[in-house]
Amino acid sequence: MKRNFIYVGNAASNDISVFLLSEDGHAELVQTLPFAGITAVGNATPIAVSPDQKFLYVGIRAAPFKVLAFEIDPATGHLLQIGRAALADSMAYLSTDRSGRFLFSASYGGNVISVNSIDDNGVAEDPVQVIETGLNAHAILPSPDNRFVFASNLGSDQVLVFRFNENTGVISDGDPQRIAFEAKSGPRHFVFSPDGQFTFAITEYSAEVIAFAYDAAGGSWKKLDAAGILPADFDGVSASADIHITPDSRFIYASERMSSTLKLLHFDAASGKLQTRESIVTEKQPRGFTIDPTGRFLLAVGELSHRMTIYSISSATGALQAVASYPTGRQPNWVEVIGFE
């Protein structure tokens, strides 16, 4: 029987909430993992999952900065800490390469990205490479074929391009070295389409989703279209946050923190055009959300509501319908869903 587990990183209460996600979209809390004894200060807890889904990595953003490695029990979803290592700075984002042998991280305040190796037991080791970037490195991801690494610089309005050696873990300048964004747009997070042909980025300040054609041979992005995500009646300064795409590539969702909304967009691969659909009011200040591996549910957490809402996704239109809401720890800002057979 398929078992899906939800992992919520809670900054202010300094813990992780683990839920079992049922087939009908309801959830049951199965573990609360406190970080007491590891660090006494609340943390933003960016989370990354290994490609084989055996291990979960949590970044500690209070000094001394570190990454914690956990083994995941596929039967219960429980987390067992198996190691820890240093991080180069306070990291806003974690991800692994496609082999699971290296951990990438990006520091907003330190303006750096770094690489940690991961040993054969799934434990992250100390940094092996630290690279200065433009202002406010925010997200970092490998390309689908593991040949490139991309890192957004929110304050410098760019995504940096690096070549990646998956044997040694070394990253080096790509050609081109950067994808430029409009001034003061603030590129924050980005995702690849499941087929690897497109990338989609969200800009924090201009509140847009931007679609790009992805050239896998050279690692370049070609802008196709852009669409705003703010509600029509919004009057204020935007703070767009997160972006995800369904496994079938049909629907894109983006979160905006000041209006506490999720925006639904459709993408036409043939024309390269984005079409905006409805805005949905969600948990207050939705810094993080995700889509489950089946594409049937979207889970959004609110930093200021301290709750998680689970939505069903219409397979026909992508429309969201709230299923249930649950309390989490204090100030949840990261959520992942992992499925096990």
From TrEMBL:
It comes from Endobacterium cereale. This is Beta-propeller fold lactonase family protein. GO terms for cellular component: cytosol. Pfam families: Lactonase (PF10282). GO terms for biological process: glucose metabolic process. Keywords: Carbohydrate metabolism, Glucose metabolism. One of its GO terms (molecular function) is 6-phosphogluconolactonase activity. Belongs to the cycloisomerase 2 family. It comes from the Bacteria.
